[in-house]
Amino acid sequence: MPTPSPAAEPVPAAVSDIERALSRISYLAGRARQHERLMATAGLAFDRAAVAILRNVAEAEPLRPGELAARLSVEASHVTRQLRQLENGGYVTRVPDPDDRRAQRVRLTEAGLTAVDRVREASRRGMEMALADWSAQDLRQLAGLFHRLVDDFVTHSEGHVDARPSALTEPGPGSGLGLGPGAAPGSVPGPARGPGPSGSGPKTRP
Questions:
Q1: Do residues 42 and 118 touch, judged by C-beta distance below 8 A?
Q2: Alpha carbons 168 and 59: distance in angstroms, whole number
Q3: What is the pTM of this model?
Q4: Helix-strand-coil percent breakdown of the chain, rounded to 5?
Q5: How many Å apart are CA 10 and CA 98, to the nearest integer?
Q6: Between the N and C ends of the chain, which has fewer C-beta atoms within 10 Å?
Q7: CA atoms of 99 and 74, how far apart (whole Å)
Q8: How far apart are CA 64 and CA 62, in angstroms?
Q9: Do 146 and 25 contact (CB within 8 A), yes or no?
Q10: Helix (H) or strand (E) holding 135
């Protein structure tokens, strides 16, 4: 007769509170209305799938399409379709892979860099408004704890996730209040009329 497994230790109440808070943020960030507000502020008209691709390429360009699909945990066919639409719109371009002459990598064009800057700036402005009543000290403390949270998630959680690739989605809580999960592949229209705010980001123009 098998020996019963020892009872697991109860999860601390604080951990449960954190999990509920992150789930709530993920839900709020993933609503279609939130994405529409973000695009209106940025002066753009991208769907969430296109924004997910642009932001990921901006953080680690140039990327192979397969690497991009792996980063987003989606089927390669979804990324291929979205990249084709973004390339037709002038936001990404393909360049030779220096490590394999048979392969290509994807990088942002000047228009793609500008679009990502505008999305980032709009997202930061929304965050700034949401935290307007927080003190500078509280903001610094929150930023430090979030950095620590992300580092620990990468170290202890990311390697254990074996999610099956599915429809293209935007990553969850760590990706900012303006961008959430639940994006389905779709068309990639161009920028809306009128200038939008432009901000800086980790990727600088060449």
A1: yes
A2: 18
A3: 0.69
A4: 55, 10, 35
A5: 51
A6: N
A7: 24
A8: 7
A9: no
A10: none
